[in-house]
Amino acid sequence: MNSLPFYQVDAFTEFRLKGNPAAVCILGSNGAGGWLDDAVLQAIAAENNLAETAFLIPSEGDAPHRLRWFTPTVEVELCGHATLASGHVLLREKGYTGAQSFETRSGILTVEPEGEALLMRLPASDTKTSLIPDDLERVLHARPLEVGKGGGFLVVVIDSVERLRALAPRSEHLMAAGAGCLIVTAPGAEADGCDYACRVFVPEAGIPEDPVTGSAHAVLAPFWAKRLKKDILSAKQVSERGGTLECRVEGDQVALLGQAVTVISGSFHL
């Protein structure tokens, strides 16, 4: 029986059972480039049944670690919270030090310690104005103030964090409305404790709602930075589990600062 070192990490939170859980499976460097067959990786991700499972091949030298991400149904091009979780495992569980770089489908990503938190850099995404899909207002029960597309997401702006918290769209209705990969966002206020807030729904990838989504903030931080005239923003993802981030817009990159905690460690047996 083969086994893989396995960790489950709650990302973008300092509290266990909050934030966004990601599985991190560590693979060896043997075999076809170190990767198991794609069907096996997908089956492991389906077994974990988390928004993402990260498969990590650590580097022993100066080369970047290699990293891939799978939802329960598909491999994805970019996943922020599972990258943060992978950095957490290397830095907090495996004894690595300093900035960690990862070779991924979205280029080289980095995670480094900053005090008790971790700083992750992702490629920034521009948002282009888009038409409002038919039936979207009816599906959301909220009036879109602005609609755009960026980073593979449909981005919808509504008027308040209170209305954002009240959203309860059904996955099948989002898919029918052409909103299978959706960010809904609202400006924050002093009472909300953030510059902006959001929720993320990705039924097209088998994720009805993602608790905290790093890749979404690589879209939202530049979006709100232009509107709020500031490059450092506080953000909240107001899902049921919730999460908080500091977002720094750095040219063609977005740096996301957040914490992570390990909740499970052991072995995944094949």
What features would you describe in this structure?
It is a single chain. The chain is of the alpha+beta class and 270 residues long. The protein has two domains: 3-116 and 258-269, Diaminopimelate Epimerase, Chain A, domain 1 (Roll); 128-251, Roll (Diaminopimelate Epimerase, Chain A, domain 1). Helix content is 21%, strand content 40%. It contains six helices and 18 strands. The chain has helices at residues 38-48, 80-93, 136-140, 161-166, 171-176, 214-228, and strands at residues 3-11, 20-26, 52-57, 65-70, 75-76, 100-104, 107-114, 117-123, 128-129, 146-150, 153-157, 182-187, 196-202, 207-210, 232-237, 243-250, 253-258, 260-269. The chain has an 18-stranded mixed sheet that branches. The radius of gyration is 18 Å and the shape is globular. The mean pLDDT is 95.
Q: What would you say about this model in short?
A:
This protein has 270 residues and is α+β, with helices and mostly antiparallel strands.
Overall pLDDT score: 95
β-strand number? 18
Helix count equals 6
Oligomer: single chain
The CATH class name of the largest domain reads: Alpha Beta
Topology pattern, helix = H, strand = E: EEHEEEHEEEEHEEHHEEEHEEEE
Question: Structural class from helices and strands?
Answer: alpha+beta
Approximate shape? globular
| CATH-scheme architecture of the largest domain | Roll
Q: How many discrete domains?
A: 2
CATH superfamily of the largest domain: Diaminopimelate Epimerase, Chain A, domain 1
Helix content: 10-25%
Query: Could you name the CATH topology of the largest domain?
Result: Diaminopimelate Epimerase, Chain A, domain 1
Distance between the termini: 6 Å
Query: Low-confidence parts lasting 5 or more residues at pLDDT below 50?
Result: none
Radius of gyration: 18 Å
Beta fraction of the residues? 35-45%
User: Biggest sheet: strands, sense, closure?
Assistant: 18 strands, mixed
